[in-house]
Design goal:
20% strand; 280 residues; 5-stranded mixed β-sheet; alpha/beta; Nucleotidyltransferase, domain 5
Length: 280
């Protein structure tokens, strides 16, 4: 029997089509229903997934996605998947449950996503039973790629970067204040735009100002979200997402300051999700 697992963030979605013997990997743009509607989701699936798996008929689709916490958004994704996979049973859950299943399998603990956006919650070994709303990139998403990118752009445009770093950033971001604000307020996917500067931050994370920006973002993540979970100090954190993984040293140092230990950090949960669904 062929099944499909999807781990979708706001920037990209990882797909695994699998049976007992083989796996097909596909990557598409993120399918966050807060930024694209059901018809657009279905269009991406038809163009970038179905075109590559003709001849295969999945019996089950397990979709774990950013933006799937609200019932109406979850239904939007469900409708698109059911339109594209007419013979499959479709399950749509949050990306946080996917991360928890990937990181913890059947064990209880705290799961965290630090990618383009942020998510966190307590997992009892089966379900997420407590999660503080990250509120998206406008109001929250502390510690995320969007949050770090916002601080990075802010300090660059205000002239706070040292001269050599300012010059290097100007080469990858040849945009003035007006162009940046237009991108943020008038163009689609502003969260992706903010997070798109992560490669620069990662490459130059030895610079004091970059370390300050990243650490400040992680401190806001702990003070604004994690430290409000009762009993958080009893469990080591399990973290998924490129931001948490690629800045894992700064994250571990910040966590230590709050009496928190990090157990594991992975860049993407998709392969461990595959392990989970083959086991259970």
């Amino acid at each position: 029997m062929i099944k499909v697992i999807v781990d979708s963030g706001s920037t990209k979605a990882d797909w695994r089509l699998f049976d007992d013997e083989s796996v097909i990997a596909i990557t598409t743009p993120g399918l966050n229903p807060y930024f694209i509607n059901s018809e657009e989701i279905a269009s991406i699936i038809k163009e970038q997934v179905l075109s590559k798996i003709s001849g295969f008929t999945p019996v089950a689709i397990y979709f774990y996605g950013a933006g799937c916490g609200a019932a109406t958004r979850k239904q939007s994704v469900m409708d698109a998947l059911m339109k594209c996979f007419t013979e499959a049973t479709v399950f749509v859950e949050t990306d946080l449950l996917g991360a928890a299943r990937a990181l913890l399998k059947k064990e209880p603990g705290f799961a965290v996503i630090l990618g383009t956006g942020t998510n966190s919650g307590y997992y009892d070994g089966a379900n997420i039973i407590k999660s503080i709303d990250s509120l998206g990139y406008f109001l929250g998403d502390e510690g995320s790629g969007a949050a770090i990118g916002k601080k990075l752009l802010r300090d660059y445009l205000r002239g706070y970067f040292p001269a050599d770093l300012h010059h290097k950033f100007s080469l990858v971001c040849p945009m003035n204040r007006e162009m940046v604000l237009e991108q943020l307020y008038s163009k689609p996917f502003p969260n992706r735009f903010l997070a798109s500067w992560m490669p620069f931050a990662i490459e130059h994370q030895s610079q004091d100002i970059i370390q300050k920006i990243v650490r400040e973002s992680f401190e806001e993540f702990f003070t604004g979200l994690l430290m409000h979970y009762e009993g958080i100090e009893k469990y080591p954190l399990c973290i998924a997402g490129s931001v948490g993984y690629l800045f894992r040293d700064i994250l571990a140092e910040t966590a230590k300051d709050y009496g928190i230990r990090i157990k594991i950090s992975i860049q993407s949960p998709i392969d461990e999700l595959l392990v989970y669904h083959r086991l259970y």
